[in-house]
Amino acid sequence: PQPPLASAPRVSRRAPPPKPSLPTSPAIGPMAASAAAKKLTLKSSDGEDFEVEVAVAMASQTIKHMVEDGCADNIIPLPNVTAKILSKVIEYCTQHAPKADDAAAADSTGTATAVKPDEEKLKAFDTEFVKVEQATLFDLILV
């Protein structure tokens, strides 16, 4: 064996840590802050199409997971969700999704977190929203 060379001390060069990747989908690509401007089409079990902003659709964990898992193409099929229930889900998600101008305002101030809608208004909305038949409420919970 040859003796080690007397050279400069070894410097460990590490690559910079990778930037966290944004979830992607064939339908919408990387879901960046501008996602609010992009649209997705949700298709109910009875064939009705609903075009919604990505930020609104992503407020539903079920839909969000489908998009992140690449199950979404141009249209996201929801074979177990009727148009009646899907319209209620979209209504709920619209109220709970960060608003585009609020998110833009948060970005301009240097904060990376999205601004949540007014909590008191949401509580009042939620109280009224759940005043539906029990069967409808169960269907809503599943989406």
TrEMBL record:
It comes from Aegilops tauschii subsp. strangulata (Goatgrass). GO terms for biological process: jasmonic acid mediated signaling pathway; protein ubiquitination; ubiquitin-dependent protein catabolic process. It comes from the Eukaryota. Belongs to the SKP1 family. Pathway: Protein modification; protein ubiquitination. The lineage of its organism: Eukaryota, Viridiplantae, Streptophyta, Embryophyta, Tracheophyta. This is SKP1 component POZ domain-containing protein. The keyword Cytoplasm does not apply. The keyword Isomerase does not apply. Keywords: Ubl conjugation pathway. Residues 38-96 form the SKP1 component POZ domain. Coiled coil: none annotated. Residues 1-30 are annotated as: Disordered.
